[in-house]
Amino acid sequence: MPFLIETFDKPDLQALRLEVRQQHLDYLNANVDILLACGAKLSDNGETASGGIYLLDLDSREEAERFIKGDPFHQAALFDEVKIVRWRQAYLNRKNTL
């Protein structure tokens, strides 16, 4: 069952985000088998990230919680808020998957 995780960065921590970014990317690469999609939420000009969206193929909310707690961004206390919800995939890559 897919889960959606949405993260919201604490204000004024762009430097921390950039400092930890490579560790975060390494973590994503190490977990690529459960990633359906993920990416940063950006400002309108595309220059500043303020959080992220993760779509994960996991069996339980507990697994989703473990995943996000293992993310170097979470461990560096970048996030102000994290939302985890079950998600129903309907379209992926412009194709109906129902």
From TrEMBL:
Transmembrane segments: none annotated. Gene3D superfamilies: Dimeric alpha+beta barrel. InterPro entries: Dimeric_a/b-barrel, Sec-metab_biosynth-assoc, YCII. Coiled coil: none annotated. Residues 1-88 form the YCII-related domain. Pfam families: YCII. It comes from the Bacteria. Belongs to the YciI family. This is YCII-related domain-containing protein.
